[in-house]
Specification:
Length: about 80
């Protein structure tokens, strides 16, 4: 099966991340890197895309990570409140 490339707006739509957050996560090494689709005469990328399957893997990992953490219970939340006066 051929890999599908997606552009930034689809990445944002699929993940719920803002443009800034996408690039911050890439810089932190926690999100798949973009690949250049076109380059300018100076060699910099002018158009980039992401491999859809890599973004999908990231989404599935985030879902799995959220399911591993125990959900807060009412008792835990109340523990952090000061006593009533």
């Amino acid at each position: 099966m051929a890999e599908r490339l997606i552009r930034l707006y689809e990445v944002m739509s699929r993940t719920g991340l803002s443009r800034t957050s996408v690039y911050e996560c890439i810089a932190a090494g926690t999100f798949p890197k973009q690949i250049p689709l076109e380059t300018r005469s100076d060699g910099r990328a002018s158009t980039v895309g992401w491999i859809a399957s890599e973004v999908d893997v990231w989404i599935k990992a985030k879902i799995a990570e959220s399911r591993e953490r125990p959900a807060p219970t009412g008792a835990r939340i109340r523990e952090n409140l000061p006593p009533r006066l």
